[in-house]
C-alpha cells in the first residue's frame, strides 16, 4: 500500500511537469507557426464531427462519439507533434552545431561524437557509429568541408578497414541533405554490422581519441562567436 501511495504521489508530481513542457513547446512552436493552434483545433473538430455524424446515421451516436473523441485527440497530438518538429528544425537550421543536436536524437543503437574535426571557420564534422557503419555528418561551407571530410574518411578507413564509412553534408544544395532529413537518411542506410562489431568499432575509435578529448564544447548548437584556441588541435 505504501509503495502504491508513493507511486501515485510521484505520478501526480510529474503531471504538472508534463503539462508545463507541453505548454512551453506550444509557445515555442507558435512563434514560428502562428496558425498551429487553429490547425490542431480544426483537425480535432473535423475528426470528431465526422465520427459523430456517422454515429447518427447508423444509429449509434454515443459509441461513435466516444471513438471520434479518442481519434480526434490522437490526430491533434500527431499534427501538433509534426508542426512542432518542423518549427524546431526551422529555428535550428543554419546555426553552427545544429547537426550535432539532431544526431544526439537519432535513436537507439547509434553512438554520436560531436566535432571530431573542425577548422578555424567553424566547419565541423560529427561522427555517428551504428549498424550501418560510420556516418560522418558535416556542416558548414561545402567547399571547405570536402577536404575536411576526405581527411576524416581516410583516417577512418585506416583505423577500421572493414567498416563502411558514409558521409553527409548538411544543407539545401545539390548533393546535400536538409537538416530535417538527416535522421531519416541515416536510418535508411543498410545495416551491415552486428552488435559486437559496432561495439568493437566504437572501442577502436575511442582509443584513437578525437577533438572532443582536447577541447570541451557545449552541448547543442555552438555559439557563433566561438573560435578554436591557438593551442588546440586543428584538422
- In total, the number of strands is 4
SSE string: HHHHEEEHEHHH
Radius of gyration: 23 Å
Approximately how much beta-strand content do the residues carry?
5-15%
Instruction: Compute the average pLDDT.
Output: 78
In this structure, how is the largest beta sheet organized? 4 strands, mixed
Strand order of the largest sheet: 1-2-3-4
Intertermini distance: 60 Å
Low-confidence segments: 211-220, 222-235
Silhouette:
elongated
**What structural class do you assign from the helix and strand content?**
alpha+beta
The percentage helix is 55-70%
**Helix segment count?**
8
What does this structure look like?
The structure is a single chain. The protein contains eight helices and four strands. With 235 residues, the protein is an alpha+beta fold. Strands 1-2-3-4 form a four-stranded mixed β-sheet. Strand 3, helix 5 and strand 4 form a beta-alpha-beta unit. The N and C termini lie far apart (60 Å). The C terminus is likely disordered. Keywords: Membrane, Transmembrane, Transmembrane helix. This is DUF4191 domain-containing protein. Pfam families: DUF4191.
Question: How are the elements arranged and paired?
Answer:
Layout: H1 2-32, H2 36-58, H3 61-92, H4 98-103, E1 111-118, E2 124-130, E3 133-139, H5 142-159, E4 165-169, H6 182-187, H7 195-208, H8 211-214
Parallel strand pairs: 3-4
Antiparallel strand pairs: 1-2, 2-3
Helix pairs in contact: 1-3, 2-3
Concise synopsis of the structure shown:
The chain is α+β, with helices and mostly antiparallel strands and 235 residues long.
Amino acid at each position: 500500500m505504501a509503495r502504491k501511495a508513493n507511486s501515485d504521489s510521484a505520478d501526480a508530481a510529474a503531471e504538472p511537469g508534463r503539462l508545463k513542457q507541453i505548454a512551453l513547446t506550444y509557445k515555442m512552436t507558435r512563434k514560428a507557426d502562428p496558425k498551429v493552434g487553429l490547425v490542431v483545433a480544426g483537425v480535432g473538430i473535423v475528426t470528431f464531427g465526422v465520427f459523430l455524424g456517422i454515429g447518427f446515421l447508423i444509429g449509434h451516436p454515443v459509441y461513435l462519439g466516444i471513438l471520434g473523441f479518442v481519434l480526434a485527440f490522437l490526430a491533434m497530438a500527431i499534427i501538433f507533434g509534426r508542426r512542432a518538429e518542423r518549427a524546431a528544425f526551422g529555428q535550428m537550421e543554419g546555426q553552427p552545431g545544429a547537426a550535432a543536436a539532431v544526431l544526439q536524437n537519432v535513436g537507439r543503437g547509434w553512438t554520436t561524437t560531436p566535432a571530431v574535426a573542425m577548422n578555424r571557420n567553424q566547419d565541423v564534422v560529427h561522427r555517428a557509429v551504428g549498424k550501418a557503419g560510420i556516418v560522418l555528418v558535416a556542416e558548414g561551407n561545402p567547399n571547405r568541408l570536402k577536404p575536411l571530410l576526405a581527411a576524416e574518411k581516410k583516417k577512418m578507413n585506416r583505423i577500421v578497414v572493414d567498416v563502411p564509412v558514409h558521409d553527409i553534408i548538411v544543407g539545401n544544395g545539390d548533393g546535400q541533405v536538409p537538416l530535417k532529413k538527416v535522421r531519416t537518411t541515416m536510418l535508411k542506410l543498410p545495416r551491415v554490422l552486428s552488435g559486437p562489431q559496432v561495439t568493437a568499432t566504437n572501442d577502436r575509435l575511442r582509443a584513437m581519441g578525437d577533438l572532443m578529448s582536447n577541447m570541451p564544447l557545449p552541448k547543442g548548437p555552438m555559439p557563433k562567436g566561438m573560435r578554436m584556441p591557438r593551442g588546440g588541435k586543428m584538422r
